[in-house]
Amino acid sequence: MLAALHVFRDYPVFGVGPGQFPRFYFVDYSKSADIKFRDIVVPRRAHNLYLELAAEVGAVGLAVFLAIVGLLMRALGAARRAVAAHDEEAADLAGAMWLGLLAYLVSGLLLHIAYQRYFWLLLAMASSALHIVRSRHPEIAWGTALRVRPASAREAVR
Q1: Environment class of residue 122 by beta-carbon count within 10 Å: exposed (0-12), middle (13-18) or buried (19+)?
Q2: What is the DSSP string of 3-69?
């Protein structure tokens, strides 16, 4: 993890490129006396999703990643709260996807993104769940401030 921090420090804006951290670590950083724990003969991963992303895609890529996940989680939480009183099934769907994303992000503290396809699948499923919840409740204005539309606006939607 310390090597990823050093790579990020040396390439802060755009990083070293997607998938390039193991090569950079092995070639440039594994021999450094202040990072070296033992002699490594094979390229290694950072074992931290956020540090590896920072090293590979820099601050820009890390910010985009966190914005995508953060905005989706915020929307799922808002959708869950908005429909919890009258549609338990939709609220549970939004809550389950929110918890799935949270679990993946927490596991990222000690793991890298080795199973990327599952993360992107989870992201797609969460986005689809959000769309399903929103389409089941057109009477709710899904802006930044959630509120129930007046009856006249509901009639216009139909």
Answers
A1: middle
A2: HHHHHHHHSTTT-S-TT-HHHHIIIIITT-TTT-SS---S----S-HHHHHHHHHHHHHHHHHHHHH
What's the domain count of the chain?
1
Answer yes or no: is 150 within a domain.
Answer: no
Residues whose CB falls within 8 Å of the CB of residue 148, separated by 6 or more in sequence, listed in order: 139, 140, 141
pLDDT tens, position by position, 131-147? 999 999 887 776 644 55
- What whole-number distance in Å separates Cα of residue 53 and Cα of residue 57? 6
Report pTM. Answer: 0.76
Residue 34: Cβ within 10 Å count: 7
Residue 11 to residue 16: CA distance in whole angstroms: 6
pLDDT the model gives residue 38: 57
Query: Distance between CA 128 and CA 18 in Å, rounded?
Result: 27
Asked if residue 157 belongs to a domain, the reply is no
Report pLDDT digits (tens) over 78-110.
999 999 998 999 999 999 999 999 999 998 888
